[in-house]
Amino acid sequence: MSGLQVRLLTRRLADATYDGSLAAYHADGGWKQFERALTEMTPDAVIQEVKDSGLRGRGGAGFPSGLKWSFMPKGADKPHYLLVNADESEPGTFKDRLLMERDPHLVVEGAALAAYAIGARCVYVYVRGEYRHARACMDRAIAEARAAGLLGERIFGGEFALEMHTHPGAGAYICGEETALMESLEGKRGHPRPKPPFPAGFGAWGMPTTINNVETVATTPVILEMGAAEYRKHGTEASPGTFLVGVSGHVERPGVYELPLGIRARTVIDDVCGGVRGGKALKAFYVGGSSTGLLPAEHADVALDHDSVRKLGVMLGTGGLIAMDEDTCIVRATKVLADFYDHETCGQCSQCRIGMEWSHQIIGRIEAGQGRPDDVDTLLELIDNYSGGKTICAFADGAAMPYRTAILAFRDEWDAHVRLGGCPFESSARAGMERVHA
Amino acid sequence: MKQADAVLSAELRAEFDAICARYPQRRAALLPILHRVQETLGWLSKDAMESVAEYLGIAPVEVQGVVSFYPMYRREPGGRHHVSVCKNISCHLMGAEALFAAIEKRFGVKPGETTSDGAFTLQAVQCQGACGYGPMLDLDGAYHEHLSADSAVELLECLE
Fold first, then answer.
1. What is the DSSP annotation of A373-399?
2. Min Cα separation B26/chain A (Å)
3. I need a labelling partner for B71 at 20 to 30 A (CA). Which of A90, A237, B54, B84 fits?
4. Helix (H, G, I), strand (E, B) or coil at A212
5. Could you report the predicted ipTM of this complex, rounded to two decimals?
6. What is the pLDDT along chain B (160 residues), one digit of tens a residue?
């Protein structure tokens, strides 16, 4: 229901005729905050306002954005870069696309503000290769801004100069990881870099760099416009504000909704999205993209904020809530994800490269009804061997989350696949299960 | 004549010069350049990769390493059209498997194959960021969403 939405970032999108042009954005107060920042605020004042707002990054990790900006070294002896992460590839995530396609100037103004705050004179928006339309919308907005003197030299007559370009990815999920993104931007294979050094000290081309998600930068003009205190009236104390939730799977009205942080998952599914499709019962849901882990329906009352979901062993991630109805086979869903993680590991760390392949094999044979008696326990042990910070980046942990949570919450289903030699949700195996129970 | 001049047209090279100017190092232009070469030639042949390497002043193996890493780059010629159907979780829950089955039944192709008349190459791809609007497919770079098995087949029947 639209009544539960709190439209701060998406307020212009409530109007279906809004075309995202510079004229339309400008008519609604757009680009005013960038002008105000450049003429009335120091970069540190912008950072302070964002710190005061409590904004946490919307790209998955939930790191405080103002604090991240403050890590950038002061002084202009080296070029500083802002990279906007528009590689949106986490399964179930489709929110940044909405902002770039429908209100690209909000993203461009937000990126310009972030660049001013960290002293960057050049912004690259790394857009996943498949998002051709989103990239074209961003290119148009950047060109309009440049023509209007909002980008370029001596913006608003002052000293600040800024260039901005989009850069296409080419289909590799790992490039959404911030250090892989930098490698990819440099024209290389997307292999994550060990940290430290952290990007603020040694980033793109070895220069101080900040990487921010699209939604994060798009929230910046909103915070400056309404003020940190007003922004904090939404959401929770530790997770203030609103966030974009992309709901997919078995709900009546899937889509992207702007909602206050702390809203309950059940409210999103039942009230915002009209409930589970066809009047069926909810079985489970991925909280914020597949890599954040799965919760069974009994946890649907969880508040969607960083700390509440963490208490249940999952993460808020990128706001991609994937709902599954009572007829869904959890082993089958996990097999679909195992295909994904096996395909997308960059292959750099042996634990991950071999672990993804082996997990894929075991999950595949359990799903195919050829599981061995000790397979489920072997899989859990294997997951422990590649998760928990044993690799250069968090990819392996991201695969471990949906695997482990699916096994722990639905162990009986995994065991049934092994015992019955097939899926208990398919008629032939269901007959077999009924025979077992008879 | 240098190889790069033979494979890459003057117009393309002028475009590439402008792309290179966006970055502090020319090599950063590699991904956008490879996209443009693929759009122009249909796929990335060994000759094309070597020409790009020569243009950027890097070793051919560096270009091959990048091309083989990124799934969107095609190292073999395909059909006249390219169809990528999402198979990941959100589209799977909405019936992507029925799309693959219907396409195979009607056109006789599985993912990775090209129809016998060369009309299109089918790929099964990972999440495309259309999760709330699935099942979906990408046809030559444009998304088609809210599909059913029937509407997907109908769409592909129009391809020549």
1. TTHHHHHHHHHHHH-SS-SSSSHHHHH
2. 9
3. B54
4. strand
5. 0.97
6. 466 667 889 999 999 999 999 999 999 999 999 999 999 999 999 999 999 999 999 999 999 999 999 999 999 999 999 999 999 999 999 999 999 999 999 999 999 999 999 999 999 999 999 999 999 999 999 999 999 999 999 999 999 8
Pair of tokens at residue A102: 């429908």
**Chain A residues lying within 8 Å of B88, measured CB to CB:** 91, 336-337, 340
Q: Where are the alpha helices (DSSP H) in A87-213?
A: 95-102, 104-118, 132-147, 178-185
**Which of A132, A248, A329, A426 best tests the B interface by mutation, with the highest count of B CBs <10 A?**
A248
Query: Could you tell me the strand order of the sheet in which A163-168 lies?
Result: A163-168, A122-127, A81-86, A209-213
Strands (E), B96-153: 120-125, 137-139, 142-144
- Closest-CA distance, A61 to chain B, in angstroms, reads 19
- pTM beyond 0.90: the answer is yes
- A250-266 in b/e form (b: 16+ CB < 10 A) is bbeebbbbbbbbbbebb
> What gap in Å lies between CA A209 and CA A120, rounded to an integer?
8
The two three-digit tokens of residue A293, written as one number: 């882990």
Q: What angle do CA A131, B115, A361 make, to 5 degrees?
A: 70
Q: Which of A15, A178, A165 is nearest to A103 (CA)?
A: A15
Tokens for A399?
């695969």
Q: What is d(CA B83, CA B56) in angstroms, rounded to the nearest whole number?
A: 31
A65 and A223 Cβ atoms separated by less than 8 Å: no
DSSP class of B51? H
Distance between CA A96 and CA A31 in Å, rounded?
19
Radius of gyration of chain B (CA): 18
**Is-contact B63 B26, C-beta < 8 A?**
no
List of residues 6+ apart from A320 with CB closer than 8 A: A90, A91, A92, A93, A94, A95, A245, A246, A248, A286, A288, A289, A290, B131
Give the 3-state secondary structure of residue A56: strand
Cβ within 8 Å, pair A167-B133: no
User: From the CB of residue A371, how many other CB atoms can be counted at a distance below 10 Å?
Assistant: 24
| Nearest alpha carbon to residue A180 among A188, A191, A189 | A191
Q: Which of B56, B130, B142 sits opposite A94 (nearest CB)?
A: B130
Non-local CB neighbours of A382 within 8 Å, separated by 6+ positions: A355, A358, A359, A362
pLDDT for A284 beyond 80:
yes
Among A26, A46, A32, A184, CA closest to A115: A46
| A176/A340 Cα distance (integer angstroms) | 15
Dihedral class, residue B146 (left if φ above 0, else alpha if ψ from -120 to 50, else beta): left
